Known about the structure:
The chain is of the alpha+beta class. The chain has helices spanning 18-28, 35-44, 53-60, 72-84, 126-138, 155-158, and strands spanning 51-52, 88-91, 99-102, 110-114, 120-123, 149-152. It is built from six helices and six strands, in the order H-H-E-H-H-E-E-E-E-H-E-H.
Amino acid sequence: MSDLAFNEIARPAVAVSPVEKFREFLGTRGKRLTQERETIVREIFADHEHFDSDQIVARLTQTRRDGGRVSRATIYRTLSSLEEAGLIRKVARANDREVYEHDYGYPQHDHFICEKCNQLVEFRNDEISAVLVRVAADHGFRMSGHRLEVHGICAACAKPPTRRHHKLDMI
Ligand SMILES: [Zn+2]
Ligand SMILES: [Zn+2]
């Protein structure tokens, strides 16, 4: 079996910035990278977090220091375009909110998703990757990557509630 190349969990350097990548993508569609679209991309790629559309809307629809403001409709349209461009991807979650993560310049990983608190934990496991390669081969499927979403209850939520009745908490 061939060895899979695993990136470090740290973000690898990408040759082309997300903004430039998006500009290229829009160009192929005959669209321009407007100031608004650029603002949205910069906000999203300012740090790596899983983010939901509501958070981005809340942050960007506030009037900024430079007086600029981005409309909710523009944000949703831009999120779809960014997804199409392969810069972000949707991560399924236990609740109904649309959660995204960077898909560009971020290494392969899988997710634990807590059904109680919706916490999303990233993990990497080489054995899972090896198994997937085997299963894919069994199906004649050539795997290029994977992002598992493992649902359940996180350690904090699984703790028995005995601590709630601790003496100090009863004061
Ligand atoms: Zn939890
Ligand atoms: Zn992730």
